[in-house]
Automatic annotation (TrEMBL), chain A:
It is found in: Cell membrane. Keywords: Cell membrane, Membrane, Transmembrane, Transmembrane helix, Transport. The keyword Membrane applies. InterPro entries: BPD_transp_1_N, MetI-like, MetI-like_sf. Pfam families: BPD_transp_1 (PF00528), BPD_transp_1_N (PF19300). The chain crosses the membrane at residues 12-30, 100-121, 133-154, 188-207, 243-268, 288-314. Gene3D superfamilies: MetI-like. This is ABC transporter permease. It is a multi-pass membrane protein. PANTHER family: ABC TRANSPORTER PERMEASE PROTEIN, DIPEPTIDE TRANSPORT SYSTEM PERMEASE PROTEIN DPPB-RELATED.
Automatic annotation (TrEMBL), chain B:
Coiled coil: none annotated. It comes from the Bacteria. CDD domains: ABC_NikE_OppD_transporters (cd03257). Pfam families: ABC_tran, oligo_HPY. Its main location: membrane. This is ABC transporter ATP-binding protein. It comes from Alsobacter ponti. Keywords: ATP-binding, Cell membrane, Membrane, Nucleotide-binding, Transport. InterPro entries: AAA+_ATPase, ABC_Ni/Peptide_Import, ABC_transporter-like_ATP-bd, ABC_transporter-like_CS, Oligopep_ABC_C, P-loop_NTPase. The keyword Transport applies. Residues 328-347 are annotated as: Disordered.
Length: 325, 347
């Protein structure tokens, strides 16, 4: 098991190095960085001096090494736009995005799994049909439309929930959290539902399909023949067997929730990384784009690693496979 | 008092489909006594497995029991509410399925699956249940049971898994075990071990066994009595030696004739011409008349009810009183002769 985890970590490092190379190449693709630092009438000697000071004379491989070494210390350079370290900018906004994504993921699992189980067990009931129709809407309606609808109903008409912003936040060391204040909790409801609705319907449909599959298997028939209660069969034997594919999808989806929270953040004016990234694209702020790229790659790689380890926890057959492989 | 453990009376099972109602079982009756092994044989689709599923109350929709009754220890069980039937499953009736590779939940330790079943049915604590589980695994011949109890199903071979399944079926000391093709998926060398084990364990406990199989060799070795099923009915039922050595029903004759023997005196094995009718197209009268070399007009018109004949119950008009000459003629015709053409049998 340990060997398996170590091997997966080594693979992850290779992936991150590759992404680092792409991020590094971004700087060189958009032309000479000196031009973006100095003004048009700077004399040639001074340009050469800055070039030497910034180490841009060194061979590319040395520059790449230096970039990686800095990235490993969370030093991604200075933003062209804000004249601040990129790590500070991202550090300020990352908690907002991560909280939004995690609450959205939690929502999609906590609502999606029970709905999937229910629709599988009570096929054809009125409530199941309603859930299935709802899930179709969740899959097919675009995020911005859902956001606008939710805001119209709950903010404008009913006035229950704020229509934008993050509410009051509490500083816990470097982490600013909105989950500890009433206004913060209220503010996160609409954006997280908007962001998580698609995943929720996906998970519901996946759980339903897997559950129906598992309920047809011999070991479920045998469990019935052993006289186990319906509860033990459905929630002990059947649900656990549906979880392996659900873990895969939920894990991959968590990565994309974080990476693609952009639109939801934009619509709700959520002070997360999304707005920062969109601004960076508009202003060709390469250091932010490169750092964002590496951060998202890092998150995806970590989520996949955790998913692989969870497989082994759930399924003993894979545990054996990992030991021998 | 010699009340049978299981008594099935005129059992009918229907499958309601869009294209009409299919009769999977149409008047099946038999008894199993305490400690007795009843073999149930027949071709695929004869209704063997449906009978087993009906007894344990696991007929799945669109199937349903549409008539007759099932008595377990004298108590009627076919009309029990689901919760009461659930308490009988595993507790008073154990079941062994065909494929041991898929009968066990792959994500749970075998011991936990046994303990779970014991705790469901018996008023014992977890530690006691575990102790019993280890004893059971020892009894079904799992070596190093104390260690293997914490193994997962994939760590066991097919034969070992079927032993675990057997331990699961027996763990609440049921009165009846239904074994549905318990050896079909196993290696031949393992089959004999499993059959021997079922026989020994059930004999020790006085458990009645309903052994469903299409393997006549297994029946001949194991069963006390045998029921031959054809198209959802019992064609013949009687003591196993008798039925194997001297079958009465023309279908049983064909079936027994198709068992290869080591003596190999026959030049070739008997084949029954044709194949079992589909449920949607069961012939009128005796369902076997289309394949029967002895059929006559009555077989085409009326359905024979089981009748006593020399210790068997046979559903065939040849064994009605006054049919001695027809029987004698039938004895001279080989079992694999072509069926009497319908026109000839018609009145």
């Amino acid at each position: 098991m340990l060997a398996f985890i170590l091997r997966r970590i080594a693979q992850s490092v290779v992936v991150l190095l590759t992404v680092g190379l792409i991020a590094f190449a971004l700087f060189r693709l958009v032309g000479d960085p000196i031009n973006q630092i100095v003004s048009l009438d700077t004399p040639q000697e001074q340009r050469l001096k800055i070039r030497a000071e910034l180490g841009l004379d060194d061979p590319v491989i040395v520059q790449f090494g230096r970039y990686l070494a800095r990235a490993a210390h969370f030093d991604f350079g200075i933003s062209y736009q804000f004249r601040q370290p990129v790590s500070t900018l991202i550090g300020e906004r990352m908690p907002a995005t991560l909280e939004l994504s995690l609450v959205a993921a939690l929502f999609s699992l906590v609502v999606g799994i029970p709905m999937g189980v229910y629709t599988a067990l009570r096929r054809g009931s009125a409530l199941s049909s309603a859930f299935m129709a709802l899930s179709l809407a969740g899959v097919s309606l675009p995020t911005f439309l859902i956001a606008i609808l939710l805001r119209y109903v709950f903010s404008v008409q009913l006035g229950w929930l704020p229509s934008f912003g993050r509410g009051a936040v509490v500083q816990l060391g470097f982490w600013s959290t909105g989950l500890l204040t009433p206004s913060g909790l209220k503010a996160i409801i609409l954006p997280s539902i908007t962001l998580g609705l698609f995943q929720m319907t996906l998970i519901m449909r996946l759980v339903r399909a897997e559950m129906l599959e598992v309920l047809r298997t011999d070991y479920i028939k045998f469990a019935r023949a052993r006289g186990l209660s319906d509860r033990a069969i459905h929630f002990g034997h059947a649900l656990k067997n549906t979880l392996v594919p659900v873990i895969t999808i939920a894990g991959l989806q968590l990565g994309s929730l974080i990476a693609f929270a952009l639109i939801t953040e934009y619509v709700f004016q959520w002070p997360g990384m999304g707005a920062l990234f969109l601004g960076a694209v508009q202003n060709v702020d390469i250091p932010i784009m490169a750092a964002y790229l590496m951060l998202i790659a890092f998150i995806f790689v970590m989520v996949n690693l955790v998913v692989d380890i969870l497989y082994a926890v759930v399924d003993p057959r894979l545990r054996a496979h990992f030991q021998t492989a | 008092m010699t009340q049978p453990v299981l008594s099935v009376r005129d059992l009918k099972v229907d499958f309601v489909t869009r294209r009409g109602t299919l009769k999977a079982l149409d008047g099946v009756s038999f008894d199993i006594a305490r400690g007795e092994v009843l073999g149930v044989v027949g071709e695929s689709g004869a209704g063997k497995s449906v009978t087993g599923a009906a007894v344990i109350g696991l007929i799945e929709p669109p199937g349903r029991i549409s008539g007759g009754e099932i008595l377990l220890g004298g108590q009627r069980i076919d009309d029990l509410p689901p919760a009461a039937m659930r308490r009988i499953r595993g507790r008073r009736i154990g079941m062994v399925f065909q494929d041991p590779l898929t009968s066990l939940n792959p994500l749970y330790r075998v011991g936990d699956q046994i303990v779970e079943t014991i705790l469901t049915h018996l008023p014992v604590g977890r530690a006691e249940a575990r102790r019993r589980a280890i004893d059971l695994l020892k009894e079904v011949g799992i070596p190093a049971a104390e260690r293997r109890i914490d193994g997962y199903p994939h760590e066991f071979s097919g034969g070992m898994r079927q032993r675990v399944v057997l331990a699961l079926a027996l763990c609440a000391e049921p009165e009846l075990v239904i074994a549905d093709e318990p050896t079909t998926a196993l290696d031949v060398s393992v089959q004999a071990q499993i059959i021997g084990l079922i026989k020994r364990l059930c004999a020790e406990r006085g458990t009645a066994v309903m052994l469903i199989t299409h393997d006549m060799g297994v029946i001949a070795e194991t069963a006390d009595r045998v029921a031959v099923m054809y198209a959802g009915r019992v064609a013949e039922i009687g003591p196993v030696r008798d039925v194997v050595k001297r079958p009465f029903h023309p279908y049983s004759r064909g079936l027994m004739g198709s068992i290869p023997t080591l003596e190999g005196t026959a030049d070739r094995l008997v084949q029954i011409p044709g194949s079992m009718p589909r449920l949607a197209a069961i012939p009128s009268g005796c369902a076997f008349h289309t394949r029967c070399p002895h059929a006559f007009a009555q077989c085409w018109l009326e359905r024979p009810e089981p009748m006593e004949h020399e210790g068997h119950r046979v559903a065939c008009f040849l064994y009605e009183p006054g049919m001695e000459s027809a029987r004698a003629r039938a004895d001279r015709i080989p079992a694999d002769s072509p069926p009497v053409p319908t026109e000839e049998a018609k009145p």
